[in-house]
Amino acid sequence: MSTKPPQSSLFQVYLRLRPPMSPHNDDNERFIAVEAPQASEDEQEDYAPAPTHITLQPPNDTRKRAIEKFGFTKVFEERATQLNVFQDTGMESIVRGVLKEGRDGLVATLGVTGSGKSHTILGSKSERGITQMALDVIFQSIGMARTNKSLTISPMILASLATSDHSEAQLFSAQSFLDAVYGEPNAGRSSRAPTPLSPSRANTPSTVRSPEPLSPQKRSPVKHQHQSSYPVSFPTRGDSGYPCGDETYTPIDWSGKPSATPSRVQSTKIFSPGYSTPTPFTRSKPLENRFTKPRFSVFKEPAPALLFPRRQPRERAVTSPRLPDVGHLTIDLSPNSEYVVLVSMYEVYNDRIFDLLSPSIVASQGNAMSRGNAHKDRRRPLLFKSTEGSPNRKLVAGLRKIACSSYEEALAILDVGLTERKVTGTGANSVSSRSHGFFCLEVKKMVTKRHGETSWTGHTLTVVDLAGSERARTAKTAGATLAEAGKINESLMYLGQCLQMQSNLQDGIKTALVPYRQCKLTELLFSSSFPSSNQMSRGQYPQKAIMIVTADPLGDYNATSQILRYSALAREVTVPRVPSLAGSIVSATSERNQSTSGRVSLDDGLAEELERAMAEIARLTKDCHNFAVRLAEEEMARSEAEIKLQAAEDRCVMIEQEVREECWADMDEQMEKERKRWQAAWDEQIGRNDELVDKKVELVSRGFNIYEDPEPSANERIEDLENENEQLRRRLAAMEREMSSQSPTRKPRAKHAPSSPKGAINRLGRGSEIDNAIQRVNQLNITDGMFSVPSPVPKLASPGKKLRKISTRKWDLAPENEI
Length: 819
Ligand SMILES: Nc1ncnc2c1ncn2[C@@H]1O[C@H](COP(=O)(O)OP(=O)(O)OP(=O)(O)O)[C@@H](O)[C@H]1O
Known about the structure:
- The chain has helices spanning 82-88, 91-101, 117-122, 130-145, 155-164, 174-182, 287-292, 407-419, 472-475, 479-506, 520-526, 533-537, 557-567, 581-596, 604-702, 714-742, 758-764, 767-779, 799-813, and strands at 12-17, 32-34, 53-56, 67-71, 74-76, 105-111, 170-173, 339-349, 352-355, 383-386, 394-397, 400-404, 423-424, 432-433, 436-448, 454-465, 544-551, 570-574.
- By secondary structure, it is of the alpha/beta class.
- The strands form four sheets. Strands 1, 5, 6, 7, 8, 9, 12, 15, 16 and 17 form a ten-stranded mixed β-sheet that branches. Strands 2-3-4-18 form a four-stranded antiparallel β-sheet, covered by helices on one side. A two-stranded antiparallel sheet has the order 10-11.
- A hairpin with a 7-residue loop joins strand 13 (423-424) and strand 14.
- Helix 10 (479-506) crosses helix 13 (557-567).
- ATP binds at residues 111-118.
- GO terms for molecular function: ATP binding; ATP hydrolysis activity; microtubule binding; microtubule motor activity.
């Protein structure tokens, strides 16, 4: 079983076994046995070969499981130190690739929860992890090559770095960033994530300092209060020359002289609504002009651009672990070169990418982020995409990148990012990472071109602390934590599929391409492994990558065997041969035959039959063995299917939860809309009422002006009266006609006859009435003089009196309905 990684290998895979948490922890049975390395003949005698294979011994339960043997590039046993791991995994060559050979590097840890991934990557209180050691090697190597030993990252350097960055990043100097994070005293917040030096990490197994295991009472569901002790002296405002705080800055030109006309760097960055002011150092447009016309301006850095929940400034600067020492691993770089290290950090949580150095601010929580599992994740996810400056290669766009000039600064940034990482306490690990953490160390080298123009080239070392796979039953997770675990297991399953493709390639099985686009995690891990031929021709080579698989030999057998199956470079299954009953009978018989030979001679027929039986038994035994192997394979397939089912179930739970959350969000939104609508209507009504009251008050304050109809003029009165007169005449005529029609036999009375005797009038019935009416009408031939404007004190009978009389008559004569 060869484990030499072939040319097609994407990852070198190492296995690291975790020491027991307590020396007396012998409750669980050890199920991993490290095979003694076989020294090859051509190897020198004084060279002790490292083990490469392990055997996984299934527990003695009723399920007769096969023994599996796995091969790795190298196996680190429990006693291996952090330095052993750093050196023997070839970290130095990976760092060299980044610094000198123009190759990206990737180191990732994979393992069951609690198996020691974070310990390997980030170290403990007493020992540094791979990340810190790599940073140390990088800064020591750069320091030796640097012309200017006390380099401070000036705004000019930042601006030129921003220009050469293709990832639409927001660039800050470490000093201004740390100033923003720790600027205000007494405004701190508690840290939840494990920092390499946090007390939660002080609980180390017996091989390290802490002798006591973590008792259940001491276990806390979240990380402890942030207590970093990096010897970082935090800058005061403006001491770096970098714009910050309330000071104003004079625009300067590329040569460093003050510029007459301030002009803002035109940024291509589009900011989310959460960021009210743009960051000054993002890539600007047009790209080529930024250096050929080296003119930019420095502005006061607007405070909201560096929004960050404020933390307590560190009160004491205890020395961080400087061990293991990696001074001997320094890499020779070309002298008189200028380098800057950009640190960025993000996590993949629920298949979405979140920047760990730019958390969102939740106003209602007093600048604290809603990041507990119980809260909604309000952070803005970032995209992994091709950008304008990098059309052929996908990048995490819009990250915050912090330019660090020293190891201490880089550690302090790392510390800030780690406190933002999702972690929680589970039944399997009191400080369990709930996301895949990516720590990117980008080393930029300044290149001066022929005409004095400068630009930056660089490559990245990405250190990945993967979240641990876990079984819900073991980890005793529920609710959101269970849903997280579902997502973690799913992404690890995709990662496993990609790694299995690698071992298939090694075995010469040419299957489909590595399916790395299935989820964000595999995309991020593998996309630099397959540069296009176009990229290769431009000097971009596949990344150098190593995977450190961690395993606890006393931990969960099923989960560990699953991870090992995914990740091992080689695998062999053996079924333990159980001595069969038939075999023992046969051998016993043959022995007896041999012992009695010479004394009793069996007849030939019996001997032949016995031989046939033995052959049959041998065939059956072989069949039986084959079946057992197949059964073992089937069992493995079944356990894989079970894991997939579990992942699918977890996914269902998560989808349900997401749908619920979406519904709630929708309902909240609707309610908010409705509330706003009602509020607007209410405000409008109140406004109207106020207006009305104001008007009334104004009216009262002005006094009432009573409106009176104007007196009719004399002509109008005459006209009215004439109309009335005319009406009456017509009425009269009508009445006369009526009367004449009542007694057609009688002669109509002479029109101008002298007044008739009383008896005649009475006979006519209404004759006297008509006469009266005629008389009255005649009286209405009133002269114009009657309506001359009355004098205030009338001497004669006033026209008013006459009018009153007329109106009385009108009443008398008018038909009933008009009245
Ligand atoms: N090689 C080691 N030497 C000393 N202590 C170790 C080692 N590996 C792990 N530990 C300790 O074991 C505990 C669990 O380790 P760690 O937190 O690194 O697990 P993990 O795999 O990262 O878990 P998760 O996936 O849940 O985050 C820690 O207290 C850590 O200090």
